[in-house]
Amino acid sequence: SYELTQPPSVSVSPGQTASITCSGDKLGDKYVCWYQQKPGQSPVLVIYQDTKRPSGIPERFSGSNSGNTATLTISGTQAMEEADYYCQAWASGTGVFGGGTKLTVL
Amino acid sequence: EVQLVESGGGLVQPGGSLRLSCAASRFTFSNYWMSWVRQAPGKGLEWVANIKPDGSEIHYVDSVKGRFFISRDNAKNSLYLQMNSLRVEDTAVYFCVRQDWGSWAFDIWGQGTVGIVSS
Lengths: 106, 119
Prior knowledge:
The complex is a heterodimer.
Chain A: E1 9-12, E2 18-23, E3 33-37, E4 44-47, E5 61-66, E6 69-74, E7 83-91, E8 94-97, E9 101-105
Parallel strand pairs in A: 1-9
Antiparallel strand pairs in A: 2-6, 3-4, 3-7, 5-6, 7-8, 7-9
Chain B: E1 3-7, E2 10-12, E3 18-25, E4 34-39, E5 45-51, E6 58-60, E7 68-73, E8 78-83, E9 92-99, E10 106-109, E11 113-117
Parallel strand pairs in B: 2-11
Antiparallel strand pairs in B: 1-3, 3-8, 4-5, 4-9, 5-6, 7-8, 9-10, 9-11
C-alpha cells in the first residue's frame, strides 16, 4: 500500500518560515493536499492540488510538489499556526494520509 | 453554512457493531463523493472509506474491508457507516467528510463522533 512520510515535529520561531515535508514514491505524479488540525478541533484544508489555497486561508500558506517530496511552507509563521499538519494524496482510488507533523512556534 | 453532523458513536464490546450517521445540510449532497476518516486517540488521521455520489462505486482501507460498509441516502442527505466485528483498534473519532467536486480534497469536515471498542 502507498505510504506518505512526514517528520514528527518541526519547530519555528515567530515570524520565520516553517517548512513541512511529505515524501512518497513518485509523489510528484499525484496531487497533494495539506490539512491543519488544532487540539480538539476537526481538520481544516489549507492547501489542495499541491499549490492552491482555499478561500480564507492566508497567503502565507503555500505548497509545492515535485519528485518524491511535497512541501508545505508557512511564511511569517504566527503563534496561531501552532498545530498538527497532515499531507494527503489519493492512490489507486484510496485515500492516504501522512503520519502528521506537530508544528511548534517558539 | 455548509454543515456535516455525525451521530451514532458510543461504547461497544469487541465483536459488536455500531452504525454511524452523518446529516448534510446547505449543499447539494447528491453531487459529492463522501468519505469517512478516523483518528485514534493521540494518533493521526486515517481514511476509512468513500462512496460515489450515486452510490455505484465504493472504496475501503484494507483494515476494514469485509467489516465496515459505507452507504448513503441522497433523499435524506445522509451518509452512513455500518461497523461490524469491531476491534479495540477501531476505537477512534470518526469524521464525515465531503470531497471537493473537482479536486477530491477533503473540504468540509464534521465535528466527529466517538466510537469506543472495549470490554
